[in-house]
Amino acid sequence: MNDTTVDVVGIGNAIVDVLAHCKEEDLTRLKLVKNSMTLIDAETADSLYEQMGPGMEMSGGSAGNTMAGIAALGGKGAYIGKVRDDQLGQVFRHDIRAIGVQFNSAPATAGSPTARCLIFVTPDGHRTMNTFLGACTELGPEDIDEDLIKSAKVTYMEGYLWDRPEAKEAFVKAAKVAHEAGRQVSISLSDSFCVDRHRDSFRDLVHHHIDVLFANEEEIKSLYEVGTFEEALAEVRKHCKVAALTRGEKGAVIVAENELHEISAEPVAKVVDTTGAGDLFASGFLYGYTQGHELPVCGQLGAICASEVISHMGARPDADLKELTAKVI
After folding, report:
1. Bridge partner residues of 264 (DSSP)
2. How far apart (Å, rounded) are the C-alpha atoms in residues 39 and 265?
3. Has residue 3 been placed in a domain?
4. Can you tell me the distance from the alpha carbon of 195 to that of 306, in angstroms, rounded to the nearest whole number?
5. Is residue 88 in a domain?
6. In angstroms, rounded to a whole number, what is the distance separating the alpha carbons of residues 259 and 237?
7. What was the pLDDT predicted at 295?
8. What is the mean pLDDT for each group of 10 consecutive residues in the chain (329 residues)?
9. Which residues contact 292 (CB under 8 A, 6 or more apart)?
10. Is residue 81 assigned to a domain?
11. How far apart are CA 140 and CA 164, in angstroms?
12. Do the strands 115-121 and 127-132 form a parallel or antiparallel pair, or are they unpaired?
């Protein structure tokens, strides 16, 4: 991984997150499915926003959160995503640049407004996400900065974006450019609902274009349509150079062709909000991976970052990740 200027470039849905606490009965009243991610239209987004309690707004999106974590660890990150030239687009651009992530994607001057995700957090720390994708849906192969992809050790792609044909073309283009330059490609499956919708095309992408795969237990079982984690484990190691599979409080399992490492979950005094747990696990892992650390160390870094982000509201780190991970590296 020599002759690079960026550790990781992320490609994903450029979304502004709106987070607010709620009660369990609020989810019932609003007819929301707890702990799920639902795509909504602009009218529903406006209606839910009006019914949310006091909250916070910040740039988000799964890959954006991962890039924020990498920057917090001291890594060099860049981001490709689609925003509109509106107020939320300016919020996203300012926030991600302010944390040290390179973001040069030109804002759209027409079309849908910048995306937003309305996140309802229940007292047990679980989050229910309602996402209006807006301008995100318009990302296509023309938005892929080939020079940027070539300059990155790893190109990291967000499964949530894998929907429209143009986005699929963008991912495949980015993967081919990266591999032709001798770089590596990674993806997070993002959500079991994404896998259920796009299983066949996800498998094709994973089997032919992905070096490092991130998934949780339910996502990887869904990808291979098996009933147990062990069966999924046997399948995924046939197709990826590395797979980092998270299992919540059970920790994570990292597999490569001839390696298997079980990573314990880091202790958390209180789980406040699980938003971004998988995203920050990917931050820690990819930071370690691009710095040349062994897989068990990469897994430990991921676990530490994930434990930090679930200890408070929001999907971006509050504490000093460099200090927290010093015990490992």
Report:
1. none
2. 30
3. no
4. 22
5. yes
6. 9
7. 98
8. 83 92 96 91 91 86 95 98 93 93 94 92 91 92 97 96 92 98 96 89 95 96 96 93 95 94 93 89 98 98 96 87 92
9. 1
10. yes
11. 9
12. antiparallel
Residue 130 has phi, psi (to 5 degrees) of -130, 115
Pairing of strands 15-21, 55-60: antiparallel
Axis-axis angle for helices 277-290, 62-73 (nearest 10): 50
Neighbours of 259 (CB within 10 A): 12
**CATH classification at residue 160:** 3.40.1190.20
The answer to whether residue 1 is domain-embedded is no
Q: What's 194's DSSP letter? A: H
Contact 289, 154 (CB under 8 A): yes
Q: How far is CA 230 from CA 206, 236, 281, in A?
A: 19, 10, 21
pTM, entire model: 0.89
Structural contact between residues 60 and 133, judged by C-beta atoms closer than 8 angstroms:
no
At 191, the amino acid letter reads: D
Q: Check residue 329 and give its pLDDT.
A: 82
Range of the domain at 289: 11-325
pLDDT, residue 2, reads 53
**Encoding tokens for residue 227?**
């009933």
> In total, how many domains does the chain have?
1
